[in-house]
């Protein structure tokens, strides 16, 4: 049928299907900024448009409904290279991270500010209540609205009280516009889906309906015969190459325990077959024509299931080692249909017992430590199964350019993806290019190669471009989640509060494959134990295979769960000692100048390195947090059913992996003196691209606009291990700084030649000159000189960053909660996160990382949980039933602050900031629940059922 | 698979068309339920109400009256609504859905979680329903929700005001803001016997008859209210919570909402 409407001011007369969604129509018309985050359930708001001036979800509207009406997208407010007041305010307030929801936010605020002159906090919440943002934690949007209002009157308006962490520097430590902010706020093409060309094939995967089964027969003939189907992939026609999907440095401490398609499926949604076809509809139809016979096996659903004697084996195939095979390795009973598990080196796995990996270690003598203690407590803590929920699901677009494969990815690890796919395809890495596009949220789930290799293979075989995008349901059941864990903690302490022994026995559930199976659980120990000064420490980690949804990396890695267990145990110990919790933390906490010996045995599959704590902001963080909260001073609530309590937790993370991570950057001078930086660093929306540009502009004393960047394109930018382990600023930033420092030396050298003065007399000066005692030359002069026929050649500098040093960000999180003693409901009333990030390179973006990390973890603590039925099927694979946090879930008073420290190792004294933010909410909230209502809830999420059961004296689950 | 999108220009034509199209034909108001992925309806024919001039909303001393295609947000814009009604409307859906969702669709299509339906049942709302031959009848919302009739088009909603006004309160319990409610509660006290309606727990809003009777006889302590409710609701275990917990939580919510109404915190009607 014919529909006529105004789209961003232009008349559109189009033929539509009667059931065509407006969102799909807009995409068909080339408008892609109405993004898809929930597959048309109407829960994420990313597809919002203004219909006759009112904000609506375009996925809930049929095209015929807009006949005769006016539709506006972000394009209505976007001009080339300039930003509207609202767009610039969102960027400058730090509320644009990945940018996938930004067009919807822009429209919501256009709608708001057209209706309300001076919006209150409630007005802003009302305007944005239907838009899901996983990155930012929403809080900074209130400042953005105020900024937008000011800029509507004066477009150049800038707050006079902007925080400046480094008055001695030009850019570092100051608010500067995020370099990709303009692209994202205007809704310019930036994401993988924006790169898809007409004629691309569509890939869909048939997922297993069973949690654990063997494929006894598979017939694809009917699917292949369907017109429009180009190729069908199964285990029969895909490489028998075993690999791991974890994007970790080679050789990985994760087993190679899967092939692209196998004869065994190990979770609901596991790959059975893939179809590539001329349209998504044909691909979907063809999936229905694939005939599969299964031998259904009993599923292993939990750690207890996996560890039980005689448990079904998730991996019952051949076990191999590249190096270090144990002498007693026995494959005599292996079932070849189960494939292989190949360890690169021993990580104490034993697939015959469903053990994927294990490790133990310690310092001192814990038996003696417990014997010395006046009080010993032993508790077990557990955490459920949670999902990263990036707004943009996993997506990849692959195509051939000549005889080379090009992969447009939304990935944290483009260089690892190149390496792994080259191996699967049986080609050298120089045949593959991976281009990391803007990433619509990742949070760790895109540290795994979740779907890239299937599309790559299909393009390699067919020669055709292929788009493969997860549905929201696939994102839940077949992407990556945080490992469920059970952690037994035993603490011993003297009456004065001094810890004498700590023991952590951690069991983790890695699910069907061993991605990060050693390192995530181990990280739960390595990022929690060093917070306490204790001479006697022992830890043990065992990770089990099972048939739940796959696990992997998630912001914080294992630390949030380890932190929950150890920090809550500390709170319980303080109570057992009759001591103030804060005083207990203060007595035992790590401080500057301490050597962390425990790290020697926490080296991610190798021997670790003890580290000296060079900087530690815990002191100021604890005192500032206690002051903000009014520690110990609680006002009785008016409602007699409510109890109010205070909680605190101390937290830490690392800044990349010493002796494991590596980053590179190259810097090239253009003919007019400007620069192009090629960085391997992978910006996920965190602001890393802005960090690396700042490194160069700061060092060379230039406006940031004179430094352009191409990052994370494997053809152009040099190797970088990727965006994980909180390494971005430290490693990728460090490499950019090293490249800039080398360029500085080159500029001085050429400057000396031109000025006829010794280098010792010269300095770089704003805005891009080499200044001598008597006169100066500009960078442009230098470029012209070096690039002439008699010059030394274009100035190019390479920077490399590795380190054996660790820099640890620290923090203290405080909260006030209310507990409803009649319903068990817990509400976070106030939350204060005080964090030490060293020098924050981008202060507003650093704060955005903290707000986002905290709100995610408040969600994990109170609401979020994947729920499975007896057969291993996820019952809530959507945003609503999983309960992602929205703006109305914010604490009424929510403040994140950076405490000032200076670290000697990181670039300009920077440490990491993002992942640590996820470590505090669960233990702080649990401690506050106890303070309020006298019950310890040791299993998150802290659902009202658990709280009410505990209040009624029943044993909490 | 939607085969056709129909745009009738009169109410009688719309009703006749839907009857003629039979099973698989649905009236389309805003479409926030019908167009959402994963719904149970699977429409083949949509009969759009957009051209029927069923919009508009107004309130006077006697009644709140709204056309079936008035949006939730339009209703919220009426000045002077009691707080309980503002709360129920605002919590019914997020703004980007309220801008599109129609009152008729919210009330006429079965939606167990609707707090607005619970409140309007408590206030004795009536639906104007048109038949295929130009007839219109008014039936109580409660009756419509109980019987889920397949025929007839809801054209307007009328919520009569009481004299003297009754004290209202609205309550809603949800695990988080995006989640569907565990329960909604509407309470109206004074004038006539007390009315207490619980939504979201059963397939349709349910009056707490025993509690209403007891409240009519005199003021009850919250603990007593809770005991009445616990006897009168029959929640089931689902993703929002286990049945035993729900029973306690709903009882507490009702008791609290009764107290709120008694204190006059939800306005009057």
Topology, element by element:
The complex is a heterodimer of chains A (957) and B (269).
Chain A: E1 2-7, E2 10-15, H1 22-28, E3 48-51, E4 54-57, E5 70-72, H2 85-92, H3 102-115, H4 121-128, H5 140-153, H6 181-186, E6 201-207, E7 213-219, H7 221-225, E8 229-233, E9 264-265, E10 271-277, H8 280-287, E11 291-296, H9 303-307, E12 318-321, E13 340-343, E14 355-363, H10 366-372, E15 375-383, E16 395-401, E17 404-409, H11 414-425, E18 432-436, H12 452-462, E19 466-469, H13 472-478, E20 485-493, E21 499-511, H14 519-526, E22 537-545, H15 559-577, H16 581-588, E23 595-596, E24 611-612, H17 618-629, E25 642-652, E26 663-669, E27 675-679, H18 688-700, E28 707-711, H19 728-755, E29 763-765, E30 769-771, E31 776-778, H20 779-787, E32 796-801, E33 810-820, E34 826-836, H21 843-862, H22 879-882, E35 893-898, H23 921-933, E36 939-940, H24 944-951
Parallel strand pairs in A: 1-5, 6-19, 12-13, 15-36, 17-18, 21-22, 27-28, 34-35
Antiparallel strand pairs in A: 1-2, 3-4, 3-5, 6-10, 7-9, 7-11, 8-10, 14-22, 15-20, 16-17, 16-19, 20-21, 23-24, 25-33, 26-27, 26-32, 29-30, 30-31, 33-34
Helix pairs in contact in A: 2-5, 3-4, 11-12, 14-15, 15-23, 18-19, 21-23
Chain B: E1 4-6, H1 11-21, E2 25-28, E3 45-48, E4 57-59, E5 63-67, H2 72-76, H3 83-92, H4 95-98, H5 103-108, H6 115-122, E6 126-130, E7 136-140, H7 141-147, E8 153-160, E9 167-174, E10 181-189, E11 195-199, E12 206-207, H8 209-217, H9 222-232, H10 243-262
Parallel strand pairs in B: 1-3, 2-3
Antiparallel strand pairs in B: 4-5, 5-8, 6-7, 6-8, 9-10, 10-11, 11-12
Helix pairs in contact in B: 8-9, 9-10
Question: How would you briefly describe this protein structure?
Answer:
The complex is a heterodimer of chains A (957) and B (269). Chain A is an alpha+beta fold. Helices cover 27% and strands 22% of the residues of chain A.
């Amino acid at each position: 049928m014919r529909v006529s409407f105004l789209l961003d001011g232009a008349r559109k007369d189009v033929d539509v299907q009667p059931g065509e969604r407006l969102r799909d129509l807009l995409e068909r018309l080339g408008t892609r900024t109405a993004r898809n985050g929930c597959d048309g359930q109407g829960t994420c708001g990313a597809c919002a448009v203004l219909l006759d001036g009112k904000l609506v979800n375009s996925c809930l509207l049929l095209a015929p409904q807009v006949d005769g009406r006016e539709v506006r997208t972000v394009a209505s407010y976007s001009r080339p290279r300039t930003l509207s007041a609202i767009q610039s305010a969102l960027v400058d307030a730090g509320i644009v991270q990945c940018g996938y929801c930004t067009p919807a936010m822009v429209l919501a605020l256009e709608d708001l500010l057209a209706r309300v002159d001076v919006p209150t906090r409630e007005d802003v919440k009302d305007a944005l209540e239907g838009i899901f943002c996983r990155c930012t934690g929403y809080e900074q949007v209130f400042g953005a609205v105020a900024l937008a209002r000011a800029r509507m009157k004066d477009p150049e308006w800038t707050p006079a009280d902007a925080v400046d962490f480094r008055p001695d520097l030009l850019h570092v430590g100051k608010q500067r516009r995020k370099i990709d902010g303009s692209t994202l706020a205007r809704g310019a093409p930036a994401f993988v889906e924006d790169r898809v060309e007409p004629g691309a094939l569509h890939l869909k995967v048939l997922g297993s309906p069973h949690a654990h089964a063997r494929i006894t027969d598979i017939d694809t003939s009917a699917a292949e015969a369907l017109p429009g189907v180009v190729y069908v992939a199964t285990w029969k026609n895909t490489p028998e190459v075993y690999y791991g999907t974890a994007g970790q440095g080679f050789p990985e401490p994760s087993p190679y325990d899967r092939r692209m398609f196998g004869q065994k499926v190990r979770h609901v949604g596991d790959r059975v077959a893939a179809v590539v076809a001329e349209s998504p509809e044909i691909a979907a139809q063809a999936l229905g024509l694939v005939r599969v016979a299964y031998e259904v096996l009993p599923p292993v659903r939990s750690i207890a299931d996996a560890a039980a004697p005689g448990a079904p084996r998730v991996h019952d195939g051949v076990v191999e080692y590249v190096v270090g095979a144990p002498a007693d390795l026995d494959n005599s009973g292996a079932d070849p249909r189960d494939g292989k598990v190949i360890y690169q080196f021993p990580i104490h796995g034993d697939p015959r017992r469903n053990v994927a990996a294990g490790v133990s270690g310690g310092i001192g003598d814990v038996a003696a430590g417990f014997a010395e203690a006046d009080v010993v407590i032993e508790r077990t803590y557990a955490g459920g199964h949670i999902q990263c929920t990036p707004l943009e699901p996993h997506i990849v677009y692959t195509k051939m350019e000549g005889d080379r494969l090009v992969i447009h990815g939304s990935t944290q690890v483009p260089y690892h993806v190149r390496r792994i796919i080259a191996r699967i395809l049986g080609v050298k890495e120089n045949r593959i290019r991976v281009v990391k596009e803007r990433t619509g949220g990742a949070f760790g789930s895109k540290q795994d190669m979740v779907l890239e290799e299937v599309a790559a293979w299909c393009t390699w075989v067919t020669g055709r471009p292929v788009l493969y995008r997860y549905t929201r349901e696939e994102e839940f059941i077949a992407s990556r989640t945080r490992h469920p864990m059970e952690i037994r903690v035993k603490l011993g302490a003297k009456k004065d509060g001094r810890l004498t022994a700590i023991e952590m026995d951690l069991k983790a559930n890695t699910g069907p494959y061993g991605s990060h199976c050693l390192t995530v659980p181990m990280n739960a120990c390595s990022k929690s134990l060093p917070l306490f000064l204790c001479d006697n420490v022992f830890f043990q980690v065992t990770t089990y295979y099972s048939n739940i949804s796959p696990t992997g990396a998630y912001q914080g890695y294992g630390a949030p769960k380890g932190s929950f267990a150890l920090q809550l145990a500390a709170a319980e110990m303080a109570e057992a000692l009759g001591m103030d919790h804060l005083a207990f933390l203060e007595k035992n906490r790590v401080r500057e100048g301490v050597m962390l010996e425990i790290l020697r045995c926490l080296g991610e599959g190798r021997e670790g390195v003890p580290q000296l704590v060079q900087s530690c902001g815990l002191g100021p963080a604890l005192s500032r947090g206690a002051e903000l909260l009014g520690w110990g001073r609680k006002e009785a609530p008016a409602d007699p059913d409510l109890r109010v309590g205070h909680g605190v937790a101390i937290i830490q993370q690392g800044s990349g992996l010493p002796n494991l991570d590596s980053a590179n950057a190259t810097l090239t001078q253009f003919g007019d003196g400007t620069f192009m930086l090629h960085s391997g660093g992978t910006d996920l929306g965190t602001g890393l691209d802005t960090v690396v540009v700042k490194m160069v502009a700061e060092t060379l004393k230039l406006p940031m606009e004179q430094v352009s960047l191409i990052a994370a394109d494997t053809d152009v930018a040099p190797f970088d291990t990727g965006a994980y382990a909180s390494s971005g600023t430290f490693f990728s930033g460090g490499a950019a700084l090293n490249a800039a420092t080398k360029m500085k030396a080159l500029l001085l050298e050429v400057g000396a030649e031109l000025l006829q003065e010794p280098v010792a007399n010269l300095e770089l000066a704003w805005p891009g000159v080499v200044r001598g005692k008597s006169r100066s030359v500009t960078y442009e002069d230098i470029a012209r000189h070096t690039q002439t026929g008699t010059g030394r050649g274009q100035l190019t500098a390479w920077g490399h960053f590795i380190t054996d040093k660790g820099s640890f960000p620290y923090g203290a999180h405080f909260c006030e909660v209310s507990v409803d003693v009649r319903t068990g409901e817990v509400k976070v009333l106030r939350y204060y996160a005080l964090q030490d990030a060293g020098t924050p390179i981008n202060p507003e973006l650093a704060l955005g990382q903290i707000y986002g990390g905290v709100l995610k973890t408040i969600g994990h603590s109170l609401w979020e949980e994947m729920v499975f039925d007896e057969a291993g099927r996820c019952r809530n694979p959507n945003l609503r039933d999983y309960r992602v946090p929205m703006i109305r879930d914010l604490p009424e008073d929510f403040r994140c602050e950076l405490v000032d420290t200076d670290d000697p190792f990181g670039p300009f004294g920077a440490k990491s900031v993002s992942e640590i933010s996820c470590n505090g909410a669960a233990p702080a909230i649990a401690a506050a629940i106890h303070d309020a209502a006298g019950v310890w809830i040791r299993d998150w999420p802290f659902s009202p059922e658990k709280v009410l059961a505990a209040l009624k004296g029943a044993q909490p689950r | 698979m939607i085969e056709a999108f129909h745009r009738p220009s009169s109410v009688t034509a719309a009703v006749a068309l839907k009857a003629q199209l039979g099973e698989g034909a649905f009236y389309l108001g805003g479409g926030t339920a019908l167009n959402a992925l994963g719904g149970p309806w699977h429409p083949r024919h949509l009969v759009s109400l957009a051209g029927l001039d069923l919009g508009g909303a107004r309130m006077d001393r006697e009644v709140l009256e709204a056309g079936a295609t008035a949006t939730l947000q339009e209703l919220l814009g009426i000045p002077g609504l009691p707080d309980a009604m503002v709360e129920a409307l605002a919590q019914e859906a997020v703004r980007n859905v309220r801008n599109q969702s129609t009152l008729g669709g919210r009330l006429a299509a079965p939606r167990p979680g609707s707090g607005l339906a619970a409140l309007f049942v408590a206030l004795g709302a009536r639906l104007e329903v048109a038949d295929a031959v130009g007839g219109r009848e008014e039936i109580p919302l409660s009756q419509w929700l109980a019987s889920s009739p397949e025929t007839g088009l809801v054209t307007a909603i009328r919520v009569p005001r009481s004299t003297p006004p009754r004290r209202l309160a609205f309550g809603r319990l949800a695990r988080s803001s995006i989640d569907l409610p565990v329960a909604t509660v509407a309470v109206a006290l004074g004038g006539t016997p007390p009315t207490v309606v619980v939504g979201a727990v059963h397939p349709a809003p349910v009056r707490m008859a025993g509690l209403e009777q007891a409240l009519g006889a005199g003021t009850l302590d919250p603990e007593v209210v809770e005991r009445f409710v616990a006897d009168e609701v029959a929640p089931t275990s689902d993703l929002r919570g286990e049945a035993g917990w729900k029973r306690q939580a709903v009882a507490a919510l009702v008791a609290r909402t009764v107290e709120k109404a008694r204190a006059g915190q939800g306005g009057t009607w």
